[in-house]
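Hi R.,

As promised on Friday, here is the backbone we talked about, encoded as structure tokens. Could you run it through your design pipeline when you get a chance and send me back a sequence?
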């Protein structure tokens, strides 16, 4: 980020890179020994996916122009979407975490069924 003024970097870019970095660290720290940590990593991946869904859904709504959006609203919206995604993924979610878990568990156990 050398040479790029901070005011030119969107809050979305910063927040998204932080979420991706956190998930990448969880994946790298997973040792394959603990089901609980595998479930956590899968839930984080589902949360990241849901957060991206929210972002794309918000982008599809045309702005009315009635109220000007500021950086504060942008940051608030990103944080709101991220927290809603984490809440959704912490429960039954959309099923992505369980699918990932089953696939990765089979790979980890040496079962390579298709």
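Update: got your reply. Pasting your designed sequence below so it's all in one thread:
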């Amino acid at each position: 980020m050398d040479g790029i003024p901070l005011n030119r970097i969107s809050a979305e870019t910063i927040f998204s890179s932080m979420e991706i970095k956190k998930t990448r660290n969880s994946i790298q720290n997973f040792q394959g020994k603990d089901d609980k940590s595998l479930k956590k990593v899968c839930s984080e991946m589902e949360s990241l996916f849901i957060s991206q869904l929210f972002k794309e859904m918000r982008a599809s709504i045309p702005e009315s122009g009635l109220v000007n959006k500021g950086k504060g609203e942008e940051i608030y919206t990103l944080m709101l979407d991220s927290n809603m995604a984490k809440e959704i993924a912490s429960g039954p979610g959309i099923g992505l975490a369980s699918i990932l878990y089953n696939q990765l568990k089979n790979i980890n156990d040496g079962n390579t069924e298709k």
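One thing I noticed while checking it: The chain is about 70% helix and 0% strand.

Thanks again,
M.
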